[in-house]
Amino acid sequence: MRILPAPGPARLLIAAQLGSSVGDGAYYVTSALYFTTVVGLSPAQIGLGLTLGWAVGSLAGVPLGALADRRGPRGTAVLLALATAAAVGSFPFARSYAAFAAAAVAYATAQCGLAAARQALLAALVERAGRTGVLARLQAAGNAGLAVGAALGGLALHAGTRGAYLAVFALDALAFLLCALLLHRLPVAPAGGAPTVGPVRTASGVRTAAGAPAGPRLAVLRDRPYAVLTLLNAVLLLRMPLLSLALPLWIVRRTDAPGWLVSGLFVLNTAAVTLFQVRTARAVTGRATAVRAVRSSGRLMLAACLVYAVSAAGLPGWGAAAVLVAGSVLHVLGEMRHSAGSWQLGFDLAPADRMGQYQGFFGTGLALARTLGPLLLTSLLLVWGIPGWVLLGGVFAAAAWAVGPVGRWAARTRPTPAAGASATASATASGSAGHPGGAAAARGGPATAAASA
Prior knowledge:
Layout: H1 9-39, H2 43-71, H3 73-90, H4 97-125, H5 128-159, H6 162-184, E1 200-201, E2 207-208, H7 224-236, H8 239-254, H9 261-281, H10 287-310, H11 317-348, H12 355-362, H13 364-384, H14 386-412, E3 416-417, H15 419-431, H16 438-443, H17 446-452
Antiparallel strand pairs: 1-2, 1-3
Helix pairs in contact: 1-5, 1-6, 2-3, 2-4, 2-12, 2-13, 3-4, 3-6, 4-12, 5-6, 5-9, 5-11, 7-13, 7-14, 8-9, 8-13, 9-11, 10-11, 10-14, 13-14
């Protein structure tokens, strides 16, 4: 599978993602040991500092995304990539808990803001019909970069010296400097997203001029259906700490499977996403197919949870390992379906002139899953055992099913073109039928998808 597409904005976005992911992969596998063995912080202090950092970062994602809407996503993304490089560069100078916590807050804030700005930049530079495919390539590139970075971090862990750890921080900082350079080479995207054709009438009857957003500056905070969709997405994103934390603890404490299987299942997941995420995303072309993808992901995650539960049913080591591998295959299939569907919904239901703040808000689902997931999942699975797996699978399935009615609720509250603008838009669509992606974008537009969802 070719991760990088043809030359153009999408290729630069993906190259930037690949470079920053290599640095992050090395950072993720080494940072905790650096701060415990070199700086002398306790695991509890590190956990609290990171939780604080991601909590602040998730809150900052919305205003930073709104900044990208007002000032332009390219310049904002470049500045936030530089801020991330500076935050990583400050870690070697953090010799106390207070300094570490401040650096963690700066790092997480810059990362969350950068994610929102890059999403807004993608929406401004890539046609609607091609966004999910580009996001799939971004996901594949991110996983490939994390794998390479983790291998480089492993070399630092093997050396175990302060110099090796500092080299990892330098690598991560340089990776984000490269990311900033690549983002700077992209075309300048206009502030406020794509221009609106003619006047727009919202559900409340408010008209706005072309390109002029109406309502409060942080309108996403009052968008109840989008908030509920973000919450449902956060529930479905519990699959991430499930793979990275809860499942490894389950394997070691509740099954007779070999401990090395923890690493094997992680490699299986990463390789599958790298190889097959783009192919999986091709089936998602609009809101209706996105809802179907998310619902099928819920069923797959329910099946995966039930299979994982069987691994503790007194099976010998090889039997438990085989069951866990089968569960992991269902898990990664559900993950790829959920990713493709949630990307499409997150973009389609966000106003074009407020894409940055909406993507920043949608991204809080990931921060919420990272913050609350470890405690919730370890309590549910390691304390309750098999009944906990059954309950968790039911939660995944229920949240995925609820995406359908919530998506229809959100679609009913989206702005719709006024009568005069509809005729103009129709003429524009007809005139661009020969333009690459024009017909596909029309078929995948909100009105068509909402009707069939």
